[in-house]
Design a protein that fits this description.
Blueprint: H1 9-24, H2 26-30, H3 42-66, H4 70-99, H5 111-114, H6 116-134, H7 139-152, H8 155-164, H9 171-194, H10 199-219, H11 224-237
Helix pairs in contact: 1-3, 1-8, 3-4, 4-6, 4-11, 6-7, 6-10, 7-10, 8-9, 9-10
Length: 238
């Protein structure tokens, strides 16, 4: 029986993406105890822990497929869904909390205005994971949706890196640009291996990149202002 050779792209991609996020949050989360930053509230800390678990699981799942352990990959997929639900719930709760914290952002957005930025990312993550679960028996679609779910939430890591280098004002440019770089890597992989671009990467990737300027437009719109203020009030009340 011929052995199916699995692509090394997905394990490599998962590792690079996980390392990128780790570096991005190294000062503000992973090595926070070495800085003079104030203690992190429990909610945000839980969000960070759960998301770290997702990063590890994401990398492990790609390795399992490369090692032909599809059976174990599917079993761990149940844990992945539980983690994804926790990430969405804690992520939304964290958005409500931070919307109530006075802070001047480099973009000029107030905390209530800025709330739409992470909310869109969390929504896209939830959508891609849900579709990935629905198409779990179609490997080609499933794996691409799960990759897009990760790219959809890479923005906060980009923002932390820019803060680290004191160039936070570049966030509106760099966040969609970094997402576009990761997506382009995916598209180039498809093109080199299959001589075509998979529509999941093409459509999903375009949606992620296009969402960034859309978030800013929504944040500055008049109709979002009362929604953002309501989110801030709810966050302050908890």
């Amino acid at each position: 029986m011929a052995v199916v050779v699995r692509s090394r792209f997905y394990p490599q991609f998962a590792l690079v993406l996980a390392l990128f996020v780790f570096i991005g949050f190294s000062r503000s989360y992973y090595f926070r105890f070495l800085t003079d930053l104030p203690p992190m509230v429990t909610l945000v800390h839980l969000h960070g822990l759960v998301f770290t678990g997702w990063l590890v699981l994401f990398a492990v799942q790609t390795r399992l497929i490369a090692a032909h352990r599809v059976d174990l990959h599917m079993k761990l997929g149940v844990a992945g869904l539980v983690l994804a639900v926790c990430i969405v719930a804690l992520g939304v709760a964290t958005v409500f909390h931070t919307a109530a914290v006075p802070r001047v952002r480099a973009s000029g957005l107030t905390p209530p205005q800025f709330a739409v930025v992470p909310l869109v990312g969390i929504t896209m993550f939830a959508l891609f994971v849900a579709l990935g679960a629905a198409f779990r028996r179609r490997a080609g679609v499933h794996k691409r949706l799960m990759v897009l779910a990760m790219i959809a939430v890479v923005g906060p890591a980009v923002g932390r890196l820019l803060l680290l280098f004191d160039v936070a004002a570049l966030a509106p440019l760099m966040q969609p640009l970094v997402a576009a770089v990761f997506i382009t890597w995916c598209l180039l992989h498809d093109w080199r291996k299959y001589h075509r671009v998979h529509p999941v990467f093409a459509v999903g990737g375009l949606a992620i990149v296009a969402s960034w300027p859309l978030r800013t437009l929504i944040a500055r719109s008049e109709w979002w202002q009362p929604i953002g203020e309501w989110i801030a009030r709810q966050g302050a009340a908890v």
